[in-house]
Write a structure and sequence with these properties.
316 residues; alpha/beta
């Protein structure tokens, strides 16, 4: 796969980068080195079952609810849990792709890379996320390697701007292998500009800002997303499961530590208990992503509106 340069941000769950307009401008040489010298020596996942073409049905215990009200409560709890902003206000908009997504997958076999790219593209399109036309500059990059720490350290050493303007503590946390996940994600987010008040008067931040308790004014947008798959810790997962997990974690910034209750979700893929392992994106996950991309990001009721859409969708 040919590597193309791109200004993109990285967060692979713990890989939480700077929140702002600045991101690392990675040179052609750095990307070429990553793809050819480091990633090429990585071992591909042991299992590589084809990605599913359709979202699997939820297990029987999730298929029906005692009452519509019970389903509404479960869905609301699910949406609130996974969209909890750990470093932002819960009143802020949820992050999504408003600029076209350009995918790049490296470190896998050619066949597996095509499967991951095709599945991510399919889920993105069905959710309503914009996709770039080829050729394009990658801004959603997936790297699979058996040496993730070495890859990250070498990359950071070659490009000091890799983590944008992230604080040193954030970078250290992401690079700390003792706290890392099987799949690490780093997000580069454009939070835009917010409106505010001064001496009791509304101060607009842009021409679309409104003085309203119902309008948030700032729509958070991904500048780029980077994911690193530790192939030594994902050997029991299929390519299809990994692709679906990347879609759920890369099409918005979800809380990967959220308590999911009994909600079916691909986010359970790396749970400590291997019981009820998700086969792929659940109907709840698919409904959530679709609702997210149909929602109004400037509305302060965005989460409520999404939960309502998800409930309607999975009740059909």
């Amino acid at each position: 796969m040919r590597c193309r340069p791109r200004r993109f941000f990285i967060d692979v769950s713990l890989f939480r980068g700077s929140i702002g307009r600045h991101c690392a401008a990675w040179s052609v040489a750095v990307l070429a080195a990553l793809c050819s010298s480091i990633v090429a020596r990585s071992d591909p996942p042991a299992t590589s079952a084809p990605a599913a073409t359709e979202s699997p049905s939820p297990p029987p215990e999730f298929a029906a609810e005692a009452t519509p009200a019970a389903l509404e409560r479960r869905v609301d709890a699910f949406v609130r849990a996974i969209t909890r902003n750990t470093r932002l206000s819960d009143e802020d908009s949820l992050v999504r792709w408003n600029s076209p997504i350009c995918l790049m997958v490296a470190g896998l076999t050619s066949e597996d890379a095509k499967l991951v790219s095709a599945r991510l593209s399919q889920i993105s399109a069905s959710s309503g996320a914009p996709l770039a036309r080829s050729p394009c500059q990658p801004n959603f990059i997936v790297v699979a390697t058996s040496e993730p720490d070495r890859v990250l350290s070498a990359w950071h050493a070659r490009d000091s701007r890799l983590f944008g303007d992230a604080a040193p503590a954030q970078i250290r946390q992401f690079l700390d292998s003792s706290q890392s996940r099987p799949v690490r994600l780093w997000y580069n987010i454009d939070v835009g500009r917010k409106s505010g008040t001064r001496n009791g008067h509304f101060i607009p931040s842009n021409t679309r800002a409104e003085s309203s308790a119902f309008v948030g004014n700032a729509a958070f947008n991904f500048l780029s997303v980077f994911a690193i798959i530790d192939t030594q810790r994902t050997e029991h997962t299929t390519i299809g499961q990994l692709a679906d997990y990347l879609a759920m974690a890369g099409l918005t910034r979800v809380d990967l530590d959220a308590g999911l209750g009994s909600a079916p979700s691909i986010l359970r893929l790396f749970a400590a208990s291997r019981e009820n392992q998700p086969a792929g994106l659940s109907s709840w996950d698919a409904a959530f992503l679709k609702a997210l991309y149909q929602s109004n990001q400037t509305s302060r009721t965005q989460r409520f509106d999404i939960a309502e859409r998800v409930t309607q969708d999975i009740s059909r």
